[in-house]
Write a structure and sequence with these properties.
CATH topology of the largest domain: pyruvate-formate lyase- activating enzyme
Structural class: alpha/beta
Helix content: 25-40%
Strand content: 15-25%
CATH superfamily of the largest domain: tm_1862 like domain
Oligomer: single chain
Shape: globular
Length: about 475
């Protein structure tokens, strides 16, 4: 049974950040591929049509040459229309190939996903075991699909949703992502997440987040449970990346790397024990930065930057988001990080439910006060599966002509909440204002220029400037 996983090519509405916004490896596809291979399905491959900049015609030619029995996609909402478009083209040319989709969007919107008419199966929730069981079943002439947890399929005209699959308890049983199937030299971090001159890759050390923010899609697949890989298993993967692939910079894609201070320190100690020359970036909540001891271990073990989701400079808006953090916690967290000379980055959202021009002004001023090394501002997007999406549906805050293609990052028509007091075009102007005010401060510009140490730093800064132009 031949399986080909595809990361779809960009289309006109998905090219917003290609070229200078960073390019991450499709780590979820790499996990699925490695799991199939470890379980005997060695004729498994990945085509990253996005990073290879392939046209639909080139993708079809590749499929014709590879001759797979199964094609698999994983899709968040921003990529969903791209997956639909290429799947429709594939079905037209290869009607007998089974197309499987998983990921956040189909897990949140399974029935509308199936109604697109180009997918044979949906693996909802955590995908590795469901995918393996489905591949095994499809080897048979008359597969019994009813026993496969986490699967959605068509039976005649009826869509059948099997019971949810239980989460994998021990993440250490998963093989490392199949990086050998990917063009690793073509991936690079965004200007906000690059911290060294080393070649880089993505890594996931845990799955899930225990918090319940109204805007976040993490719980759609992982639920609100956090499952950790062991420190040894994580650093084994890092060591493999260093020695086998010459990769020394890691973007930790955990929803919340600092969920457990004890485990963070264990990972840092393991890195130091092996004397690995690595650099890394992680994400954290401001209320998980408790001790300077943890930060000093992180710094010593190669942490170059911590990315915080501050989200707002208004406590009222933070509370409406169910964020569970305070303005004071954010100030203290950034202060602690700066004290140990780890760089900081932040993200903010404008245009949330309950937002006003006054609270957006507070957010911009707060971002400047925190003065992190890099900051991004987003127009709040109501992703399916989130509380804010369903609230917006109920209150009529979603546009009448909502299209999945508009969720593509930096799409000119990126959907936003159509609030009575803040229509989308007004919020968009505030996002542009936020970028201009934060990045074009004389003191900030002088500080960034003083940090230039190499050609790569110049390129990183230039890419960041181009990204700002694209946004503003």
């Amino acid at each position: 049974m031949k399986t080909l996983f595809i990361n779809p090519p960009f289309t006109s509405y998905g090219r917003g950040i290609k070229g200078y916004g960073g390019q991450s490896m499709p780590i979820n596809l790499a996990y699925l591929a490695s799991f199939l291979i470890e379980n005997g399905y060695t004729n498994t491959n990945i085509l990253d049509a996005e990073v290879l900049n392939l046209s639909y015609k080139e993708v079809i030619l590749h499929i014709k040459k590879a001759n797979p029995d199964i094609i698999g996609f994983t899709s968040p909402t921003p990529a969903f229309q791209q997956v639909v478009d290429i799947s429709q083209v594939i079905k037209k040319h290869f009607p007998n190939i089974k197309i499987i989709i998983g990921g956040v969007h189909p897990s949140a919107m399974p029935f509308s996903t199936m109604d697109e008419g180009c997918f044979d199966y949906i693996c909802y929730g955590e995908g590795e075991i469901t995918m393996l069981e489905l591949v095994k079943a499809l080897e048979k002439d008359n597969p019994n699909l009813s026993k496969i947890d986490g699967l959605i399929f068509k039976k005649g005209k009826k869509t059948i949703q099997n019971k949810p699959r239980k989460l994998i308890e021990n993440l250490d049983i998963l093989p490392f992502p199949a990086r050998n199937l990917l063009p690793l030299k073509l991936y690079y971090p965004s200007p906000a997440k690059s911290v060294s001159e080393k070649n880089g890759t993505s890594i996931i050390t845990s799955r899930g987040c225990p918090f319940n923010c109204t805007y976040c899609v993490a719980k759609v697949v992982w639920t609100r449970r956090v499952r950790f890989r062991s420190a040894k298993n994580v650093v084994d993967e890092m060591e493999e990346c260093v020695k086998r692939y010459n990769l020394g910079e890691f973007n930790l894609h955990d929803e919340l790397f600092t969920a457990s201070e004890k485990r963070v320190i264990e990972i840092c100690k393991e890195i130091l024990k092996r004397k690995l020359d690595v650099s890394w970036v992680c994400m954290a909540r401001v209320d998980t930065i408790h001790s300077e001891r943890m930060l000093r271990y992180m710094k010593k073990a190669g942490c170059g930057k911590i990315v915080f989701g501050f989200e707002s400079g208004s406590q009222k808006v933070l509370d409406l988001m169910n964020k569970g953090t305070t303005i004071e916690q954010a100030i203290k967290a950034v202060r602690k990080v700066k004290k140990v000379n780890i760089k900081s980055a932040g993200s903010f959202m404008l245009g949330n439910i309950g937002e006003t021009r006054k609270t957006m002004r507070q957010t911009i001023d707060f971002a400047k006060k925190l003065n992190t090394d890099t900051t991004v501002f987003f127009q709040t997007s109501p992703y399916p599966g989130t509380q804010i999406y369903y609230t917006a549906l109920k209150e009529g805050y979603l546009g009448k002509d909502l299209k999945w293609r508009d969720f593509a990052l930096l799409s000119k028509n990126q959907p936003a909440l159509n609030l009575p007091n803040l229509p989308p075009h007004v919020v968009k102007k505030w996002v542009r204002k936020a970028y201009r005010e934060f990045y074009f401060r004389p003191g900030y510009l002088l500080n960034q220029l003083s940090c230039i140490r190499s050609i790569r730093d110049i390129n990183r800064m230039w890419n960041g400037v181009k990204l700002l132009v694209q946004v503003g």
